[in-house]
Amino acid sequence: MIKGKNLHKIFESGVFSKRKVIAVDGVDIEIKEGETLALIGESGSGKSTLGKLLLMLTEPTKGEVIFKGKNLTKMKKSELRKIRRKMQLIPQYPDSALDPRWTIYESILEPLRIHGIGNDDYDKIKELMEIVGLKEDHLNRFPHELSGGELQRAVIARTMVLNPKFIVCDEPTSMLDVSVQASIINLLMDLQKERNLSYLFITHDLEVANIVGHRMAVIYAGQIVEEGVDILDEPLHPYTQLLVKSLTMEEDIADTEEEIKKTLKFGKGCKYYNLCPERSEKCLKETPPLVELDKKRKVRCHKYA
Ligand SMILES: Nc1ncnc2c1ncn2[C@@H]1O[C@H](COP(=O)(O)OP(=O)(O)O)[C@@H](O)[C@H]1O
Ligand SMILES: [Mg+2]
Question: Can you give the residue ranges of the ABC transporter domain (predicted)?
């Protein structure tokens, strides 16, 4: 369904100093039809940027995006516009996706208008409301009159109105109360089954990743460090091992966020070097490749190369 090949995104920040941040650093990724790839990693590791690259919402510094066999990075703007509606984003903050001055109905109708598919599709939108677990009555309300969970359901309705095939769910429940998180996740999983959708499901919650992901990828400092099925049952990369340990032992891994920031500027060597308990001299000199151990697992670590 969708493939990212050797994707890079370098941000230049600072008006005078031109500091470079390598947010995504050579990612190869593929998501099949009807499949969910759960992408886990800490804040600042490049998850959202990778999602936006696959949706072509941000232009890759290097690399290609292939959607249904078509190379989006080489496509004309007008062609890309048509394909865009098949690829959607469910963002972390539902209120960022809805205009506060518009009713829910107007917000859900807008994508249809933009793509010139419909100006007034009340029946279709009413049906969608039911599908996402809202009432017809919600259509006349404004975003501030809805709870966080209801808002996210409205965003999901807005996403589904264009019948997309591939959706990036960017931490779609992280801003919601724990009590409503499960119902939103279940809704997304039901929709996937009914509509055969492909998801990149971004989360930093390993339990959520385990539930939604057919496969999982762990990202650290812009690179995939481990990828496969049932990763968390038997993590191989030292960083994945730390993630799993911190989940079960509730250990704090907050200090790694600072480390990632420092690491984002480096070129050579393993990006996890500074924190890795199993580092060797080779790790400082050579970037470990992402090695396929068997059909089910890839790991970026010299230990397994
Ligand atoms: N538009 C931007 N301009 C400059 N730097 C950015 C921009 N977007 C993200 N970054 C930087 O890229 C890195 C990865 O960010 P992001 O993809 O948002 O990570 P995550 O979603 O995993 O928290 C961070 O260091 C972040 O500060
Ligand atoms: Mg993010």
Answer: 2-246
Name the closest ligand to CA 258.
1
The two structure tokens encoding residue 12: 């230049």
Tokens of 58: 């941000």
Task: Take atom 2 of ligand 1 and give the residue whose Cα is closest.
Answer: 11
Q: How far is the CA of 42 from the centre of ligand 2 (A)?
A: 9
Task: Quote the ligand 2 centre to 170 CA distance (angstroms).
Answer: 7
Residue 258, pLDDT > 90, answer no
> Is pLDDT above 60 for 192?
yes
CA-closest residue to ligand 1 atom 8: 49
- Which residue's alpha carbon is nearest to atom 1 within ligand 1? 11
Hey, what domains does the chain have and what are their CATH numbers? 2-86+201-304 (3.40.50.300)
Residue 13 Cβ contacting ligand 1 at under 6 Å? yes
Percent of the chain as helix, strand, coil, to the nearest 5: 40, 25, 35
Q: Torsion angle, CA of 67/92/262/254, rounded to 10 degrees?
A: -130
